């Protein structure tokens, strides 16, 4: 499997590049992303989380289908995605992230999105997604803009988490998957967004 990049690494804070149709061995990379996601017990994984600053993420929400019927069969590859509309209700739900092990917090997101993207065959789609899949997609989409779910917390909560995030960035956690830490001299710089990426996404 591919190693997971942990908060404090520069790639998690970069805006991903668009992927050309002739990107070398794209399908092979997508297959490795799915494999890494499953082995890490994730339901979504973005290219920056495996060290590639690309607008690409994969999602498989089907493990949650018993509790969220809309997740049944929801397995997608999103290339060069762009969310063009957020709508519906604001919903609060607990989230975690493979790149921030051991941290789970309540995050508010819209329950419906309209998104444009290309699939693994570079076929164009415009889709309205609701419920849990919409949340997972928004979480992974944020990664392609250098945004982590902790960036969407209140200022107070971010301040309370600062020391814990700093410790995680320095490797003070235990996981059952391979991972990559940032340079110990620069990790603090990458605990927060580099620019106004929250406005770009």
Description:
This protein starts with a strand and ends with a helix. It is globular, with a radius of gyration of 16 Å. The chain has helices at 26-39, 131-143, 155-169, 197-200, and strands at 4-5, 44-46, 56-60, 75-95, 105-118, 124-130, 179-180. The chain has a 5-stranded antiparallel β-sheet, with helices on both faces. A two-stranded parallel ribbon has the order 1-7. With 201 residues, the protein is an alpha+beta fold. The mean pLDDT is 95. The protein has a single domain, classed as Alpha-Beta Complex (Peptide Deformylase), CATH 3.90.45. It contains 4 helices and 7 strands; from the N terminus they run βαβββββααβα.
Question: Could you estimate the helical fraction of the residues in percent?
Answer: 10-25%
Terminal CA distance = 28 Å
**What is the chain-wise order of helices and strands?**
EHEEEEEHHEH
The CATH homologous superfamily is called: Peptide deformylase
Write down the CATH class. Alpha Beta
Poorly predicted residue ranges: none
Number of strands: 7
Separate helix tally: 4
Sheet with the most strands? 5 strands, antiparallel
Give the overall shape, derived from the CA principal axes: globular
CATH topology: Peptide Deformylase
What topology, given as strand order, has the largest sheet? 2-3-4-5-6
Beta-strand residue percentage: 25-35%
* Cα Rg: 16 Å
* Structural class based on helices, strands and sheet pairing: alpha+beta
List the domain count as a whole number. 1
């Amino acid at each position: 499997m591919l190693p997971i990049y942990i908060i404090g690494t520069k790639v998690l804070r970069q805006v991903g590049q668009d992927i050309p149709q002739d990107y070398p061995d794209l399908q092979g990379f997508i297959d490795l992303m799915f494999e890494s996601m499953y082995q890490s017990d994730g339901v979504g994984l973005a290219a920056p989380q495996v060290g590639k600053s690309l607008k690409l993420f994969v999602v498989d929400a089907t493990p949650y289908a018993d509790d969220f019927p809309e997740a049944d069969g929801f397995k997608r590859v999103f290339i060069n995605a762009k969310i063009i509309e957020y709508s519906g209700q604001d919903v609060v739900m607990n989230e975690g992230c493979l790149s921030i092990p051991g941290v789970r917090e309540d995050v508010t997101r819209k329950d419906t999105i309209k998104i444009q993207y290309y699939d693994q065959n570079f076929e164009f789609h415009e889709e309205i997604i609701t419920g849990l899949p919409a949340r997972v997609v928004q979480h992974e989409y944020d990664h392609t803009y250098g945004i982590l779910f902790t960036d969407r917390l209140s200022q107070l909560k971010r301040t309370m988490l600062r020391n814990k995030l700093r410790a995680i960035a320095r490797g003070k956690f235990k996981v059952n998957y391979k991972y990559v830490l940032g340079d110990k001299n620069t990790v603090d710089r990458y605990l927060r967004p580099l620019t106004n990426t929250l406005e770009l996404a």
